[in-house]
Amino acid sequence: MCDDSSMESRLDEDNDQVVISLANEDCLAVASGRMIGGRENPYDLMAKIEVAPLENIDPTYEAFDRFRPRGDNLRAALSRVACRAIVLGNNDIRVFVPNELVAYNYFSAETITADRIDGDIEVKPLGGIRIEFSSLIK
Question: Residues 78-100: what's their mean pLDDT?
Answer without folding.
Answer: 87
